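Design job #97: recover the sequence.
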């Protein structure tokens, strides 16, 4: 078993045991945020026919030579084409077709004039400017060519992807399956939020916060009722959860106290312990086991420590299982707006709020940094990565900030 390893090594080990859990076919309406499992090749072009970008008249450009406000040319209007129509016949010299935006252009035409540069006159139209072939003409396949690969496996489904899928007429879409992730919270002190909070007890917040993080990361959270600090029972539950789920996350009982049984319970459950302790603060005593290719990851019971190690180590593996290729959080250089007075003997992930001002990122520590202080996670949208052995941070100092959610920064 490895001990006190760097964060990056821990993540590499976890990713080695991480692979997608298959695919499912779902309705397009439910695909936003999922990851595409298939390549999509256009089996017809977009637009599927030559079309008009304007309300106006389809003409033959050569018929408009020298046309001007003073000397308009006059063409006979032989048909009206609305969006959704099929042109009744091709256009020949001397003719124009009244056409709506998005309507198919008749054969023979090579330009469109907007309605504002024309004037109807009985069954004819006066054209006030000269056109070149191709003016205001949208060719079939202008956007997407037939046979073109427009979407690739591994792409995150954004609203634009949804739009392209729909324009290809795809109702059912193959996406990577979400992993089932068990959340097993451990501690004699825990009571459920629907139970009386007796003296000495606390509500089990981790089961909810970690489940929410799993959902946010793209997994399917399976929360279990909390369990007491009893070794054999924990070992039994670990085996059970591992059979029922793709990944098991626990919180609590990973340190060195008499009732911290998770490390031993992982061994008793038949799993192989990959490492114990990662060299970051908070969340140091994280433990990880593997059985039959599935992982058990035991996080600190301290609520913020659990959330931070989740962001650094578990979110990437859930994202990888869901088919995402790029799972690293973005880093930016930020300038400290306030000082942080503590020394960091160990590498520290400082909860911070990072924002953009006058051309640079600024960082403010997000409040009490104790590993159990959950409120500090409210403002925390980034972690300042302080190397071990560094002294306090001063106002104006440049730091490396790991962004947890780019949504909250700008
Ligand atoms: N002698 C030492 N003591 C500790 C060390 C050490 O190296 N030597 N390490 C400390 C560090 S660092 C951490 S982190 C914690 C980790 O402790 P555990 O993972 O064993 O967690 P617990 O002791 O079970 O709980 C810690 C804390 O969190 C509260 N908690 C637990 N579960 C929940 C939950 N589901 N919801 C809300 N709050 C929860 C629990 O009541 C404790 O207050 O160990 C240090 N000790
Ligand atoms: O590693 Mo712990 O989360 O600092 O108390």
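Job complete. Output follows.
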């Amino acid at each position: 078993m490895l001990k006190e390893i760097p964060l990056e090594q821990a993540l590499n080990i976890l990713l080695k045991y991480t692979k997608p859990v298959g695919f499912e076919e779902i309705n397009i309406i439910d695909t936003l945020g999922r990851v595409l499992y298939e390549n999509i090749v256009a089996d017809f072009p977009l637009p599927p026919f030559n079309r008009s970008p304007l309300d106006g008249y389809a003409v033959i450009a050569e018929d408009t030579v020298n046309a001007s406000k003073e000397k308009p040319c006059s063409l006979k209007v032989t048909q009206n084409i609305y969006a959704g129509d099929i042109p009744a016949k091709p256009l020949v010299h001397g003719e124009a077709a009244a056409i709506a935006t998005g309507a198919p252009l008749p054969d023979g035409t090579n330009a469109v004039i907007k309605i504002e540069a024309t004037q109807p006159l009985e069954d004819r139209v006066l054209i006030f400017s000269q056109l070149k072939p191709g003016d205001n003409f949208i060719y079939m396949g202008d956007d997407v060519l037939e046979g073109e690969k427009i979407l690739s496996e591994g792409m995150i489904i954004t609203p634009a992807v949804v739009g392209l899928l729909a324009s290809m007429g795809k109702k059912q879409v193959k996406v990577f399956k979400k992993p089932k992730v068990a959340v097993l919270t451990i501690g004699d002190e825990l009571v459920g939020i629907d139970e009386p909070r007796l003296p000495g007890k606390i509500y089990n917040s981790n089961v909810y916060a970690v489940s929410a993080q799993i959902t946010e990361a793209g997994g399917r959270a399976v929360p279990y009722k909390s369990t007491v600090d009893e070794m054999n029972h924990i070992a039994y539950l670990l085996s059970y959860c591992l059979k029922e789920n793709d990944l098991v996350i626990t919180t609590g009982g990973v340190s060195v106290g008499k009732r911290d049984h998770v490390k031993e319970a992982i061994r008793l459950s038949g799993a192989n312990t990959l490492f114990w302790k990662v060299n970051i603060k908070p969340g140091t005593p994280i433990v990880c086991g593997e059985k039959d290719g599935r992982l058990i990851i035991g996080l600190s019971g301290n609520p913020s420590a659990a959330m931070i190690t989740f962001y650094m180590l578990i979110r990437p593996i859930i994202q990888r299982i869901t088919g995402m290729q790029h799972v690293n959080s973005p880093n930016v250089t930020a300038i400290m707006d306030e000082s942080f007075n503590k020394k960091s003997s160990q590498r520290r992930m400082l909860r911070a709020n990072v924002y953009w001002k006058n051309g640079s990122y600024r960082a403010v520590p997000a409040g009490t940094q104790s590993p159990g202080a959950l409120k500090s996670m409210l403002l925390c949208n980034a972690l300042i990565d302080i190397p071990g052995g560094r002294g306090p941070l001063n106002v104006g100092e440049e730091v490396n900030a790991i962004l947890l959610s780019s949504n909250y920064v700008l």
